[in-house]
Amino acid sequence: MEGKGLADSSVSAHIYPKWNRSISVGDAKLDREHEEIFDQIIMVAGFVDQGDGGAVLAAIDHLLALLERHFIDEERLFSATSYPHTPAHKIEHRVLRHMARHIRGAVELSRDVSFLGLSLRHLIQAMVEHIIEIDLGYRAYLHEAE
Ligand SMILES: [Fe+2]
Ligand SMILES: [Fe+2]
């Protein structure tokens, strides 16, 4: 079993979902940011498939930057509306940020990316659920910010 990663056959970028219109929050900029985040997670998964730890780290760093910008943009929008769930929403953002940072830390520590499939699937699942269950809830307030 020499040289075989833990997930050689199961970490495949093609199984990750792409963003699509059915989860549009009704704002072009925020939709584009969601799409970029999904694409970046697929990018990370692609480097995991290739076993390229350095590229995985760089791609996760870019993902963290995209998440950071997106959360700031959403939270700025909340403060321009009467959206009532800002505190809980910010905590969800903090949890997602921690998930991504945790993945980064584990890669940096072990230099092994073969375990990342499960973590990335959890992260993208958490992102999808956050958009559907939490982000779509601010849709009705967006017009107040215009
Ligand atoms: Fe979002
Ligand atoms: Fe959000």
Fold topology:
Elements: H1 28-50, H2 53-79, H3 86-110, H4 116-133
One fe (ii) ion (FE2) binds next to helix 3.
Structural overview:
It is a single chain. With 146 residues, this protein is mainly alpha-helical. The protein has one domain (28-145): Hemerythrin-like (Four Helix Bundle (Hemerythrin (Met), subunit A)), CATH 1.20.120.50. It has 4 helices and no strands. It has helices at residues 28-50, 53-79, 86-110, 116-133. The N and C termini lie far apart (59 Å). One fe (ii) ion (FE2) binds next to α3. Residues 27-135 form the Hemerythrin-like domain. This is Hemerythrin-like domain-containing protein. InterPro entries: Haemerythrin_Fe_BS, Hemerythrin, Hemerythrin-like, Hemerythrin-like_sf, Hemerythrin_metal-bd.
Beta-strand percentage? under 5%
Principal-axes shape call: elongated
Q: Identify low-pLDDT runs.
A: 6-10
Q: Give the CATH topology.
A: Four Helix Bundle (Hemerythrin (Met), subunit A)
CATH superfamily heading: Hemerythrin-like
Amino- and carboxy-terminal Cα gap: 59 Å
Structural class per helix/strand content? mainly alpha
Q: Please state the CA-atom Rg, rounded to the nearest Å.
A: 16 Å
* Overall tally of structural domains: 1
By DSSP (H or I, 4+ residues per run), the number of helices equals 4
